[in-house]
Specification:
This protein is α/β, with parallel strands linked by helices. It is built from ten helices and eight strands.
Length: 224
Amino acid sequence: MTTRTMTLAHAIKVHPPHAINGTYAITPDCADTADLLRRVRQALVGGISVLQYRNKTASLALCREQALALCKLAHEFSVPFIVNDDVLLAAHVGADGVHLGAGDGGVAEARAVLGANKLIGISCYNRLPAAISAARAGADYVAFGAFYSSPTKPYAVVASKEILSLARAQLAVPIVAIGGITLSNGAPLVQAGADALAVISALFNSPNICATAQKFSNLFPATT
């Protein structure tokens, strides 16, 4: 590590190691709350490390219902619960944090609502400077992608896995990879520097969600 890299890394806030790592599950759009909870419970039993609630088709009332139920379920397993995009919903349900994309506001605004102890993640797509800025602003983790073609976001910007190694050398916050990740293509992203793999379809469309979650967890090096 160069002197410049060390200086940059040390200048950026270092966050708790428990925050974001391993299999980062993001919920699919689902109007049936009971079915959603059933599927998420299987993923939790299988060992996911983070749960994010994302539903782009639900009404506000349904989002509140589902987020409250999922927050309680995630906490049964001592897994951090993150809400996608909506800072006020995260605060309302007592989530552990929020994940913000382009146009969702910045770290400072989210921190003012959620407080100092909540997790704030920022989508940085294929832009390393944006990740550096987010970390300096106090983000708890950054996300890059899409690395592969994604059924959830077919027109997402494309990121190369090299950005993970560049980010790993310059950032002290956890790094999440997202976009079309499967059991067959996730390992190179972990090897390149991703602390977590964000998955939706490859997990929740699996015929055996629990077993698939376990297999995703096996992509990460064992810790002692």
